[in-house]
Amino acid sequence: MASPCEILIETDDAELARQLCLSGQREARRIEQKFSRYRDDNIVHQINQGQGQAIDIDNETYRLLQFADRCYQLSDGLFDITSGVLGKAWRFDGSNRLPGQSQLDELLCTVGWEKVEFNPQYVRLPAGMQIDFGGIGKEYAVDKVLTDLKQHCDREIMVNFGGDCHASGPPAQQGAWMTGIENPLKPGDAAEVIRLARGALATSGDAYRFIVANGKRYGHILNPKTGWPATDSPRSVTVAAGTCTEAGILSTLAILQGKDAESFLDAQQVKYWCYR
Strands of 117-118's sheet, edge to edge? Predict the structure, then answer.
C-alpha cells in the first residue's frame, strides 16, 4: 500500500487482536499482490501485456473494472484507469523537471477507457494500453479488510491505510475514533482532528508527490484529457462517505475540478475539508 497501515480494535483480548491483525494483513497483501501494476506476476500484468488479446478475469477483477467504468462515466472521463501510462513522463520527486508536450501527446494516444472492452469473462485492451488500479486499490483494500474482519468479530474496528480509513462503529469507551487530517503545509502535523464514529475518510493531495518548476507547483494527480496535473486545485481534500472507496473517488475528483473543487463537493452533499 506504499504507506503505514494499521488496524485498531476495541478489545482487551490480545490474542483476538493478534489474529484479526494477521488476517487483515494477509488480505491487504493479497489485494496488493493481485492488483499492483508494479508486479510482473499478477492479473494486471497479464492484462497490460495482452497486446490486443482477450485476457480471462475473475469476478473480483470484473467488479473493480465495473467500478472504474462507473467512475469514468460519472466524471465525464476525468477518472480514467488507463491514464497511468502518463507516469512515464512525470516524476513527482520534488525536482523541477517538466515533460515535453510531444512526449505527453504520444502517451495520450494510449489513454482512453472508452477503448477498453470487458465483460464478466474477459478484458481486452488495444495494444500499447495499460490499466492501473492505483486510484482505487488502497481504498478498496480498506473496505474489503474491514468487511472481512467484521465477519469474525463483534467488536468495533477501524482500518487505516495511509490515512484512508473506515470505521465499523464507535468504540464504546471513547464514542469515536480520533483521526487527524494532515496539514499539507506542514506534513506530519494535523490541521484538524476528526471524531469518526462510523464510516470512512479519504484524502487526496500533493503534500508528498509534486514538482516545482518555474515557480509553479505541480501535484501528482493528472488530468487524463491533457496529460498535465490539475490546475488551481486545493493542496488537500478530505471527504467523509459511507465507504472508503466512495470517499477516495470523490476526493480525487475534487482535486481534478481545480478551482471548482468546493462547488463539486457541495453538489455531492458530502462532508469535506479543503485546504488551499
Answer: 54-56, 122-124, 117-118
Q: Kindly tell me if the per-residue pLDDT of 173 is higher than 90.
A: no
Residue 255 CA to residue 221 CA, distance in Å, equals 7
pTM: 0.95
Q: Which domains does the chain have, with CATH numbers?
A: 5-275 (3.10.520.10)
Instruction: Say whether pLDDT at 2 is over 90.
Output: no
pLDDT class of 93 with cuts at 50, 70, 90 = confident
pLDDT digits (tens, 9 = 90+) for 235-266: 999 999 999 999 999 999 999 999 999 999 99
Closest CA to 57 of 125, 113, 114: 125
* H helix or E strand, kind and range, residue 275: strand 271-275
What does the alpha-carbon distance between residue 177 and residue 175 come to, in Å, rounded to a whole number?
7
Question: Which three cell numbers, joined as nine digits, stand for 203?
Answer: 484524502
What angle, 0 to 180 degrees and rounded to 10, lies between the N-to-C axes of helices 244-256 and 261-268? 150
Q: Pick from 70, 62, 245: which is nearest to 147 by CA?
A: 245
Q: What DSSP character marks residue 98?
A: P
- Strands 54-56 and 199-205, how do they pair? unpaired
Q: Is 23 exposed, middle or buried (0-12, 13-18, 19+ CB in 10 A)?
A: middle
**Residue 120's Cα: distance from chain center in Å?**
23
Residue whose entry in the numeric block shows the C-alpha cell 467512475: 71
User: Do the Cβ atoms of 230 and 130 come closer than 8 Å?
Assistant: no
Distances in Å between the alpha carbon of 208 and those of 54, 98, 142, 166, 245? 37, 17, 21, 22, 21
Q: Longest C-alpha distance within the chain, in Å?
A: 60
